[in-house]
């Protein structure tokens, strides 16, 4: 596990409300945790996970970034399974998440086929234009 991967995970966690992040690379597993007030963690919120090295540059074609400002939804409805999970194979055009902006739901789809390597944003979090959401390897 290299320093760039660790720094990318720390930066991703700093911009997240999640108290735990995990990165797996080969036989190594790095888990970062932080204490948060109990009322700041929403029930049912899952930590994000990064499997394998995180992309180092902001213009990496493997990165899926937010096309607009809004709230990200990683599952189609509260009781449904997520659109994708780390390690899942996706095809071009596969739904990855939905971003809600001004009560309009905008679907984010895969622009390339591959495996979901990282999901670095949590369900219900606010995202900005160009913010890293996930990676497809």
Report on the structure:
The structure is a single chain. By secondary structure, the chain is mainly beta. The chain has one helix and eleven strands. Strands 1, 2, 3, 4, 6, 9 and 11 form a seven-stranded mixed β-sheet that branches. It has a four-stranded antiparallel β-sheet with strand order 8-7-5-10, with no helix packed on it. Mean pLDDT is 78; it is low at 38-47 and 50-57.
Features:
mainly beta; globular; OB fold (Dihydrolipoamide Acetyltransferase, E2P); 4-stranded antiparallel β-sheet; single chain; 137 residues; 1 helix
- Looking at the structure, what is the overall shape? globular
Order of helices and strands: HEEEEEEEEEEE
Please give the share of residues in helix. Answer: under 10%
* Whole-angstrom Rg: 14 Å
Structural category is mainly beta
Q: Write down the CATH topology.
A: OB fold (Dihydrolipoamide Acetyltransferase, E2P)
Ends: how far apart? 17 Å
Query: Mean of the pLDDT scores?
Result: 78
The CATH architecture comes to Beta Barrel
Largest sheet properties? 7 strands, mixed
Instruction: Work out the count of structural domains.
Output: 1
Number-wise, the strands total 11
Q: Estimate the strand proportion.
A: 35-45%
What are the segments in which pLDDT stays under 50 over at least 5 consecutive residues?
A: 38-47, 50-57
Count of helical stretches: 1
CATH class: Mainly Beta
């Amino acid at each position: 596990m290299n320093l760039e991967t660790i720094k990318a995970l720390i930066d991703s966690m700093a911009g997240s409300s999640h108290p735990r992040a995990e990165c797996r690379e080969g036989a190594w597993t790095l888990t970062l945790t932080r204490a948060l007030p109990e009322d700041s963690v929403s029930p049912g919120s899952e930590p994000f996970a990064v499997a394998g090295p995180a992309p180092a540059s902001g213009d990496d074609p493997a990165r899926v970034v937010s096309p607009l400002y809004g709230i990200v939804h990683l599952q189609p409805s509260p009781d449904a399974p997520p659109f994708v999970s780390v390690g899942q194979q996706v095809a071009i055009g596969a739904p990855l998440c939905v971003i809600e902006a001004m009560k309009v739901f905008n679907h984010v789809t895969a622009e390339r086929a591959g495996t979901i390597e990282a999901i670095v944003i949590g369900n219900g979090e606010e995202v900005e234009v160009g913010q890293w959401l996930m990676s497809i390897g």
